[in-house]
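Journal club prep — side note

Before the paper discussion, L.F. wants everyone to see what a predicted structure for a comparable chain looks like in token form. Sequence:
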Amino acid sequence: MDDEIWPELPHRSFEAIKTTLKGARAQAYAGALFKGELLKTQAAQAAYNSRKLGSRKILLAGGPVYAEDARRIKKQRQDNAQQEEALALIAKLELQKKRAKQKFYIEVLPTLIKFTQKKL
């Protein structure tokens, strides 16, 4: 270490402090180098992953669709189709009820009225 920071140490124990600080500085430098290498490695891994995922995309008018997006869209379409089928079935049953009522009013009710009038 610099002698201007530690000009003359009165005891030998301060030599240990001087050595410890020198080691700490070396570790900090090595850590900074490691951090730089780690960032480079992470960037390389991210580039690799993007190239790997790039082969799974399909270009559409709105842009690329990845496998995860395609699965989500497919599920949403299936859910929508099921809802539409359920609504169509409900509408069909309501129409059948309405037609049954109309049939009752047109065909059965007049007959019942005639039948009850004859008995009175």
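L.F.'s comment for the group: The chain is about 80% helix and 5% strand. Keep this in mind when we get to the figures.
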